[in-house]
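re: the backbone from monday

yeah here it is again, tokenized this time
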């Protein structure tokens, strides 16, 4: 009740100040809010520009540098320092787990590193409140606008624009703090002084406030900026400011958990591991709160209980104290818990049980998720993984066609045919859904490389759907043969099996190329198989005419036989189209 009374008193004094000072005080508040919006936007622009510059290399960096928990931690630190957003790194990591590019244990180590990397942001902000960054802002804007209009360096220009917006927002926040003059606002002084900084209740209240606000604004950087602003004016005691920082660490995990809501089980576990890691860190720091904070203050050279500091001295040193605590907390927490990654993995696996197996005949997108804070480059990675799943499903469908040809039991025959028919519907749905997703991604500001990838992927899904159509056409021809009580002779079965074997080889090679790293692969094998299919089709076509003339089988049987052979040849063409699109090569194939 006391908290609400004090908060009401604070609001009264603030409104009284607004009435007294008129529009100027309201404009200052608007300036603070606008500065925070500019800060969030600058961080977003800077982060997305760096991710676009890195592009698909992020996948290979994460894959190559997460061989053990320590390299994973260093990778998370490095990437977060680069993109200046732990939320971007954790969402990226969750996306990679969702796409099967990272294991859960690897993801946890990367997330731990992200918590260390994000401390750089706090140091940049503390510098912004201590040093006049105005002279760095305008050159960054100037160079950025020039580079944006150059094809090769436009993302560097975007990055400089983000940096400029970030620094400019810090300059505006610092000015707004001086104009607010909270150190002489009796309502603000009474409100914050009503909390006993030696009481764990007060610490816990501000920890919750920091958590809730960060969850709401989805930006720990913005809340950190407000915390630094309040502490630098001297109105917010350092202990309460540090409690807010701890709350920010918990609240920032909401971003990854929201992004993982539509993801698979492992991705949701990775997001939950981020929350578990940060909550465990907050718990042990709360147990050692005052000794730990005093140790950090001593490192910086600040005496928390002293009243000898002037407002200017507090404005200079308290942002450094907050940044130092943020660093010490996250580094210590990571060094302690990195040894317990297997245990954290077990906890999140226990908390999030595996979902019941969905039958493979049911339509579902396994890897594409509607997340937040994902750049188009990361979305393309998810779509590529979904296309791999699509191709594997089509390969299974062809396997069913091979079973259908050999099945003599009509009940089993009907079941296999029904599965093939259902797979055809699934392939149609997958093409539409992946195309819709890529269309949404293409609406964003894309790099030329990403635009090219999306064009290739749209062609791939179209050709994969055509392969599904061919499989269904072959199945219908086999069914027509059985319905009409016709049958192939032994030689025809041998030829069909040989053609099916070549077609299966083509599909196998296509899946290898779709799943591999393009630079390490060669499309020659696929083209050679297609040539073999074409040559064998030509051979069988000539033999079929001779066999019909020799009355080896009826014309109707010969027609159905060649329908299957021709459909396999078409299927091989579709496979080559997928390979050409994936590998970015073109080869003329003989008729």
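seq for it, each position gets an aa:
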């Amino acid at each position: 009740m006391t908290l609400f009374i004090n908060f009401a008193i604070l609001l009264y004094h603030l409104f009284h100040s607004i009435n007294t000072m008129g529009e100027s005080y309201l404009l200052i508040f608007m300036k603070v809010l606008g500065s925070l919006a500019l800060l969030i936007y600058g961080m977003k622009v800077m982060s997305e520009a760096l991710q676009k510059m890195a592009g698909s290399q992020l996948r290979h960096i994460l894959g190559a540098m997460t061989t053990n928990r320590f390299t994973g931690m260093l990778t998370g630190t490095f990437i977060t320092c680069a993109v200046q957003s732990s939320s971007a790194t954790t969402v990226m990591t969750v996306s990679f787990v969702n796409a099967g590019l990272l294991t859960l244990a690897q993801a946890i180590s990367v997330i731990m590193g992200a918590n260390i990397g994000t401390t750089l942001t706090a140091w940049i902000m503390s510098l912004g409140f201590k040093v006049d960054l105005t002279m760095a802002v305008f050159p960054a804007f100037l160079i950025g606008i020039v580079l944006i209009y150059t094809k090769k360096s436009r993302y560097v220009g975007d990055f400089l624009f983000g940096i400029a917006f970030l620094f400019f927002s810090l300059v505006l926040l610092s000015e707004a703090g001086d104009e607010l003059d909270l150190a002489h606002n009796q309502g603000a002084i009474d409100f914050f002084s009503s909390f006993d900084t030696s009481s764990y209740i007060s610490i816990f209240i501000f920890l919750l406030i920091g958590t809730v606000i960060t969850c709401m604004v989805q930006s720990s950087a913005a809340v950190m900026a407000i915390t630094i602003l309040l502490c630098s004016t001297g109105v917010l005691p350092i202990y309460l400011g540090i409690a807010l920082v701890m709350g920010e660490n918990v609240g920032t995990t909401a971003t990854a958990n929201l992004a993982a809501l539509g993801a698979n089980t492992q991705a949701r576990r990775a997001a939950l591991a981020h929350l578990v890691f940060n909550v465990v860190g907050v718990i042990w720091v709360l147990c050692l709160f005052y000794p730990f904070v005093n140790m950090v203050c001593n490192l910086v050279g600040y005496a928390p209980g002293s009243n000898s500091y002037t407002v200017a001295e507090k404005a200079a040193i308290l942002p450094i104290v907050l940044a130092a605590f943020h660093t010490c907390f996250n580094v210590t927490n990571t060094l302690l818990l990195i040894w317990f990654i297997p245990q954290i993995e077990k906890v999140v696996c226990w908390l999030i049980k595996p979902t019941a197996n969905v039958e493979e005949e049911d339509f579902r997108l396994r890897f594409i998720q509607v997340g937040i804070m994902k750049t188009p480059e990361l979305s393309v990675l998810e779509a590529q993984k979904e296309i791999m799943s699509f191709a594997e499903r089509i390969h299974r469908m062809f396997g069913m066609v091979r079973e259908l040809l050999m099945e003599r039991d009509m009940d089993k025959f009907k079941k296999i045919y029904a599965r093939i028919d259902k797979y055809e519907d699934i392939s149609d749905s997958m093409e539409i859904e992946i195309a819709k997703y890529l269309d949404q991604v293409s609406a964003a500001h894309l790099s030329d490389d990403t635009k090219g990838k999306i064009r290739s992927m749209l062609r791939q899904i179209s050709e994969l759907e055509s392969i599904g159509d061919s499989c269904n056409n072959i199945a219908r021809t086999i069914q027509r043969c059985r319905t009409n009580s016709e049958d192939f002779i032994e030689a025809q079965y041998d030829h069909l099996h040989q053609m099916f074997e070549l077609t299966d080889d083509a599909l196998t090679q296509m899946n290898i190329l779709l799943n591999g790293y393009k630079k390490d692969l060669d499309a020659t094998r696929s083209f050679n198989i297609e040539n073999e299919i074409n040559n064998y089709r030509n051979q069988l076509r000539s033999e079929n005419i001779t066999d019909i003339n020799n009355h080896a089988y009826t014309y109707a049987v010969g027609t159905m036989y060649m329908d299957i052979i021709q459909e396999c040849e078409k299927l091989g063409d579709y496979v080559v189209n997928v390979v050409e699109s994936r590998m970015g090569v073109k080869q003329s194939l003989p008729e």
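The domain at 376-583 is CATH 1.20.58.220 (Methane Monooxygenase Hydroxylase; Chain G, domain 1). Confidence is low (pLDDT under 50) at residues 1-5, 7-23, 357-361.
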